[in-house]
Amino acid sequence: MTNINIEVHHITRVEGHGNIVVNAKNGVLEECRLDIVETPRFFEAMLRGRPYTQSSHITSRICGICAVGHATASLRATENALGIELSEQTALLRKLIFHGEMLDSHVLHVYMLVAPDMLGVGSVIPLVKIAPDAVLRALRIKKLAGDLCAAIGGRHTHPIAMAVGGFTHFPSVAELKALRGRLVDARADMAETIKLAKTLPWPQFNRETEYVALRKEDEYAFIDGVITTTDGGKYELSDYRRVTNERMMPHSSAKHCAHKRESYMVGALARFNVNYDKLHPRAVAAAQELGLKPICTNPFLNTAAQVVEMVHSVEDAIGIIDELVGRGVHSEPLPPFPGKGGEGVGSCEVPRGILFHDYQIGDDGRVIGANCIIPTGQNLANVEADMRKLVPEIIDRPQDEIRQMLEMLVRAYDPCISCSVHFLDVKFV
Amino acid sequence: MGRELPSGVEALDGGTPGVGLLHLLEGRSRVIIVDAAEMGRHPGEFVRFRPAEVTLTGSAERFSLHRTAVADALALARELALPMPEIVFYGVQPGRIGWSDELSPEVAAAVPELVDAVLEEARREA
Lengths: 429, 126
Known about the structure:
The structure holds 2 protein chains of 2 kinds. By secondary structure, chain A is an alpha+beta fold. Chain A has 13 helices and 15 strands. In chain A, the strands form 5 sheets. Chain A has a 4-stranded mixed sheet. Chain A has a 3-stranded antiparallel sheet with strand order 1-2-3, covered by helices on one side. In chain A, strand 4 (162-163) and strand 5 (166-167) form a beta hairpin. The termini of chain A are far apart. By secondary structure, chain B is an alpha+beta fold. Chain B has a single domain (18-123), classed as HybD-like (Rossmann fold), CATH 3.40.50. Chain B has 3 helices and 4 strands; from the N terminus they run H-E-E-E-H-E-H. The interface between A and B is large, with 59 and 49 residues. Strand 15 (424-428) of chain A pairs antiparallel with strand 3 of chain B.
């Protein structure tokens, strides 16, 4: 009978690590778990006592990939707590920069992490040898995404111009028109990306689960909306705890989330499954080309759903720029502190899934309490449930192959491992 | 006195840009990267070095995009033969790495001298 003992152990140099532990004895699965420790709670402590205007800048530092996403959720929580309404222009600019980040994050995940796995090379460096054009294309898309973020947010990473109630910097119409031209040109790169995704050997594995995403009736929801699940759940943002139901697990230092089943999934595939009918027609065409239909229950195809979303973001960004150029971009003052605090929940769909920030702000404008629930934490229980179904299906394969499949499964979720601290590890030669 | 950036020099907060570092480097003639560096020195000590003088440890972690470090980005640039500026590092030995928004006292004390050194480097003729 089969015995397997897999431990993928990454003690990294800084906070945050991911471990896969799988053991089977005589063909029976004994242990199957994923530990990813993400600690934004330290950020929650950092917010306490600070002026409300600083929250988005501090929490944007949680992540170098979802910096706009954290800033957006933070601003929406603050604005909801203080009863601040947004102008149409602010809402449009927020959506536009969000598309930049979505594109930026998805292109990296598809090209730098998933494609090397599926093409049988260890990482992006050897990928340069077999597919240099693909890597250059990825960098080109990433540059466009970064420039889009910089034009709206003031710089590439950690937006500085996004503020409570509006922006402190506004793109010129000429900048927007130039970006529009590059987005139109990027359609060719999107077509090539779809072509690449079509050739990748996606693992065949399905498991039904509940998919959770924000939903809006008038658009494919990335910011605000109603928390909606494929099991029929619908909740206002302020009721997010009824969905997340965070609970401590004895084996893991990260909390697990569950709604109607033992686990649920968030991220591109969840959004695709919940909001397929709201995708841009070109994104729908991309999905059809990739053979992706809702409700898709193969978690490996989360990456394919990211490709579909890349197309959607390019097209929707073009539409938003047209609207902004049509109405003209005007400098708008930021709203003053209303003089009274409150509690508010902000939510958006960051590349890895639904993100919640929940703030209490005092009448002096200082943060009293904060709670951030990140997508990767919500996915942990679902990844483990996938592993428990997947391992018995492939248990007769060589141990290295099983390990590789498990790593690919985890990577398909595009997990967020805290990236707030970075430094160089230097050896003098 | 002398605390202004020389003309033609831009100061950027790079944040955690990952592969995006390549786009920040693009089109520049000279780049000074100031970052925390594990060099086995005393906290607050800083060292000037060039990429060729050191081995920068890349990240073995491949679960997530969040581990793309400076070394990985530079390795990718080399592999793609992208034109890169002249790069100089100012590595600062951290006092502690952890969750805070403040520098350790040793590093905080070293900042004025570090700023002087970086400004002098920036004023140097290429």
